[in-house]
Amino acid sequence: MVMDKGAAPEELTIQALRKTLSQYAKPDLGKAILQMLTAIIPYFGLWSILVYMVKQNYPYAVIFALILLASLFLVRIFIFFHDCAHNSFFASHRANTIFGYVTGILTFTPFRYWQRNHLVHHNTYADLDKRGVGDIWTLTVDEYLAASPMTRLGYRFYRNPFVFLGIGPGYSFLLTQRLLHQWEGKNERFSAAVTNVAILGIILAAGQTVGLRTYLLIQIPVFLIAGAIGVWLFYVQHQFEGVYWSRHENWDPVKAALKGSSYYKLPRVLQWFSGNIGLHHVHHVLPRIPNYNLQRSYDELPTMQDVTPMTISRSLKSLFLNLWDEKQQKLVSFKSLNSTNNMPH
Questions:
Q1: What does the pLDDT look like over 61-115, one tens digit per residue?
Q2: Domain count, the chain
Q3: I want to staple 100 with a disulfide (CB 3.0 to 4.6 A). Which of 54, 111, 137, 312 is the partner?
Q4: Is 156 inside a domain boundary?
C-alpha cells in the first residue's frame, strides 16, 4: 500500500499509515548489536582516556573536547534506551527489558518509570486536555493570564532556556529520578531501586579505583551536556512554529503525528548521534519502528516526506514560543501578550 505524496492528513487514517509503516517495525538483531558495539565501546573508551587525562592534569580545554564527544555517545545510548521502552530495539521483550535496565543505569534513568511516562506521552501529545505526563509544561494564553503571579513567575522560570537546558537536566536526571516516593506501582519502584543501587555501586567503585573527584569531574559535565542535548531534542519535537495542538474532542491522531511532531533535519553526524530521532513524525505514527529503520521508512514512503523539515536555525525560534494561543491556533511568545488581542478584558 502506497500513499500519495499530496494526500492531505485528513484523508488518511492512522490505521492505514501504521499498516504502511509496519514493514519497518521489524527489529534486526545484527543492526542492534552493531549499534551497541559502536556506541558503548567508544563511550567507555572515552571514559578511560578521560580518566587518564584528568589524573595527568591535561588542560581542561582538551579534556572538555572529549567530554563533549562522550556526551554525544551518551545521547545515542539513551536512544537505545528509548527504543527498548517501545520494545523495538530487539525482537525479544526480555532482551529489551534487560538492555533497557542497563542503558537506564548508564543514563541514570529508571527504565520502568520512564517507560510508563513515555507511553502516556504517546497517547496524549498534542492534546490540550491531557497535558502533564512526559511532556514539556505548556500553558495556553488564557491559562497564563488567569494564573496567579507566582504561577506566572514559575512558568516563566521553567520556560527560560537557561533553566530547562541548564538547570533542568541536572535536576531531573540527577535528583528527581532518584526519589523513590515519586514512583507508583511495584514495577516502577523496583526499577528505581535497582537503578539507584547500581548508580551508588558505580560511585563507590569509582571512589575506590579512579577516585571520586576524577569520576565527578567527568561524569557531571558529561551528564549535564548530554541531558541538555536530550532535553532540547525532546523540546523541539513538539514545540515548534506551525505545530498542531487540539482539544481532546477535536484531537486527530494523523494530524498529531504529522503536524504535532517535527521532522528535525540534522547534519548527518548529529543525526547518527541522535539515533534518527529527528524523524519524530515517523516515530509517532508507529513507535515500534527501531531507530535504525526510521530513515529508510522516511526515504521509501512519500507520505512521510510530505512534511516541512525543521533546520537547526529554524528550530531556534522555538526558544521564544512559550504559550499556546487557542484563538490563533499557534504557539506564541510571552511578548505577544502585549498585543491588545491577548489582553484580558
A1: 899 999 999 999 999 999 999 999 999 999 999 999 999 999 999 999 999 999 9
A2: 1
A3: 111
A4: yes
